[in-house]
Amino acid sequence: MTDHSMIRVRGARENNLKNVSLDLPKHQITVFTGVSGSGKSSLVFDTIAAEAQRQLNETFTRFVQGFLPSYGQPDFDRIENLSSPIVIDQKRVGGGSRSTVGTFTELLTDLRGLYSRHAQPSAGLPVAYSFNAAQGMCPECEGIGKTVQLRLDRFLDESKSLAEGAILHPEFKVGGWIWKIYAESGLFDPQKPIVKYSKTERQNLIEGLPEGEERKVTFGGFAYQYEGLSERFARMYLTKDAASMSERKRAVFEQFVDSQTCPLCHGARLNQAALRSLLNGKNIAELCEMEAHHLLEFLKDLPGKELQFEMTFLLGRLEQLVGIGLGYLSLDRETVTLSGGESQRLKMIRHLGSSLTEMLYILDEPSVGLHPSDVARLNDLLRELRDKGNTVLVVEHDPDVIAIADHVVDIGPGAGTHGGEIVYQGNLAGLRRSGTLTGRFLTQQLPARKSVRQARSWLSVKGASTNNLKDIDVDFPEAVLTVVTGVSGAGKSTLVFDEFLTRYPDAIVIDQSRVAANVRSTPATYTGIMDEIRKLFARASGAPASLFSFNSEGSCPNCKGLGVTYTDLAFMEGVTSTCEVCGGKRFREDVLHHHLRGKSISDVLEMTVEEALNFFKEKKIRVVIEAMSEVGLGYLTLGQPLSTLSGGEGQRLKLAMELHKEGSIYVMDEPTTGLHLSNIGLLMKIIDRLVDAGNTVILIEHQLDVIRQADWLVDLGPGSGKAGGQVVFAGPPAELHRSRESALAEYV
Ligand code: ADP
Ligand code: ADP
Ligand code: ZN
Ligand code: ZN
């Protein structure tokens, strides 16, 4: 008889996994630990989740399969006893302006039902309460609640020429490819200030060419369609793209648009008929504006046993929303404005409501964005998922989440080629004794900073009142490390991104968003050393440098230098496969005959940073690869597509590029996301170097080791949403114990 109590994985080899075999207990919580880049995602997401999804898809008819993304089989020998997978990741909930907390959690559906049955005076009439339906939406804003327009005065500095940077939006910056579309279009003199443009020129620049006229602008081997600034801006930002904007992008975006509350519905999105129907004196839009915990109180106060009974499901869900620490959200909050962590917790709510059992839940760092005091509630939810009869797999670094594991799988010992093995599996007590990096770091803390650095001067934010901020003044010390803390929803992101960054726009944001600008980007191209490497090859071989670029003539003609080919399968998601012509080497056969110290260009791109350190003695290259090795990326290869880097790896790559600068302001949002406890020490060393070189660093962070290392803390609170938005403590960590209000005092 076969044993179905374990998921059995044999011979897993995706990415860096070294033929890994292991058994995972079903109906338990298994936490996967290990340093960043050790192979956790390769095992949990790229192997287990991917295979479970693939097998599930195979159970559908061919017709249905046609509508599902298709997955190749991951690299392994055997996997047995999988269940249906549900991956709860931190990807933002899309759906644009029409997706709100209320629509996503389906709470709004229930509220609408309640209104159509009980509201006065409309009960019984066919009044629609949905802003996504033609009969319910406000006719003026079509259910969006606001109107958005480009602000030309902020977008263009007309006293300047294109070459002097007349276009102020950062994505149109001088020298960038978008800028070239204008500067190299031949339509304008790039040296002429915009004020001196003729009427036609101005029109061509802003609105685009007249109907029927077209122009292609060619550079770098590509032809781009010319369009006017406002057309391009609208296409880049005003359409569906807003749904997928990073926080940073959105912050920039908002500087260039005027968004007005809809004059007809005042943001309520609904038409007047719907807004006139009241329940206990309030219309449905007013309910949606309330923070969830207040809405819960309001609904519980509605009279009538039957009504209360009817709302059982609605109240239960709202209680879960509050229980997971999101009680400060209102149902009308657009899901695109939620952070990754908030989105993930919202997705959990959706699944907790489900009565399916025997599922395989897979979560990626659910503790992200959670204050230590919120983690306990997260743990309750994970246990609840398990106790409903599901198997729960969690990738986590937070010791408080690792603490509730029934089973721990520690992957390591190092990152990249130095990782990919199971270094420990078993219970938590065993992990502590195991002597693995994770085991050791679980029992030790980074010490507090011995002496704090003093501010050189202060960067002031006065009268901050965006979102929930209560008209506060905050001074950020220059040339030291400031950490902004507070429970989730306290106002940290609002203070740093909406208030600080708009006053100090040259601050450099180092976030975990993808670094890749295009599919061909690699660490070598991103850091600029590819140009140096090509020159070396040209010098050694006598062939032109351009031959050694996989973006131009030297590239494999079949895959155009990508190393992979993409097969479009009509309405199925396409399939990527290694290029048959170059075998993934990206270059033409003849290019590979040229050598530099015995290596072809493709050999060089396959080198890890560490290997490259032994190969290159050229200064310009060494500065970069030494910095990469210092930030702990020595295991990356020079040619690894940037799209395969994890958020944490990408962030450290960005940091490596900054190591030799001084006098800048850096802003980072939860830089420890995806970082193992042992990587945090490394990150702090890098940050210290930046500060010691005279830079100002401002972090939003929950990780206690980081908080203890701060020179200066700004703790926001005391609560979330309306109950937050105030500075409860500002000062060096050593003085925190004097604060009676700060929830942080007891943790640090
Ligand atoms: P973790 O989740 O533990 O941070 P990953 O599983 O994401 O680690 O990565 C393990 C190693 O595999 C890293 O060196 C990473 O750079 C590499 N890697 C991940 N995805 C790919 C890929 N698609 N192609 C090549 N290398 C990859
Ligand atoms: P934190 O970063 O401390 O978790 P935030 O700054 O994200 O907190 O949020 C502070 C408050 O502002 C919360 O009540 C949140 O719901 C609200 N808020 C944040 N962003 C937006 C937004 N784009 N639209 C409306 N409310 C927002
Ligand atoms: Zn409207
Ligand atoms: Zn090829």
UniProtKB/TrEMBL annotation:
Subcellular location per the Swiss-Prot or TrEMBL entry: Cytoplasm
Record InterPro entries: ABC_transporter-like_ATP-bd, P-loop_NTPase
GO MF: ATP binding
Organism superkingdom: Bacteria
Segment forming the signal sequence: none
Residues annotated as domain ABC transporter: 1-438, 452-743
Keyword ATP-binding: yes
Keywords recorded for this protein, A-Z: ATP-binding, Cytoplasm, DNA damage, DNA excision, DNA repair, DNA-binding, Excision nuclease, Nucleotide-binding, Repeat
Stretches that traverse the bilayer: none
Keyword DNA-binding recorded: yes
PANTHER family named among the record's database cross-references: UVRABC SYSTEM PROTEIN A
Family the entry assigns: Belongs to the ABC transporter superfamily. UvrA family.
Protein name, as recorded: UvrABC system protein A
UniProt organism field: Deinococcus antarcticus
